[in-house]
Task: structure prediction
Amino acid sequence: RLYTQAADQGNAFAQHDLGRCYMTGNGVDHDEKKGAWLFRKAAKQGSSNGQVYLGNCFLEGRGVVQDQEEAVKLYTQASDRGFANAQVALGNCYQVGIGCTKNEEGAVKLYR
Result:
């Protein structure tokens, strides 16, 4: 209930955390669309966690229509701010060419 209140008030941390709850059904009904919607709200506020989790949704087509290029865009936004989880996710995409042109050198730079 407190997550919901904070998320409704625009708290990006709560939006991200509540989104994770909806994605897994932890304490709420399992609803991937609602989870992705909450990640999007957090991402729009510049939440790196929100961007990575929304990117994961787009990568896998969970709660949204699959769009691997959109996933790469979201990972890039968070990676550009030095967010390690985003750098790994983006590196994985570069390494095998998911949602982008394969770029093994770029992947290695991100992994470092």
In short: The helical segments are 2-8, 12-24, 32-44, 48-60, 68-79, 84-96, 104-111. DSSP finds seven helices and no strands in the chain. The mean pLDDT is 96. The CA atoms of residues 73 and 99 lie 9 Å apart.
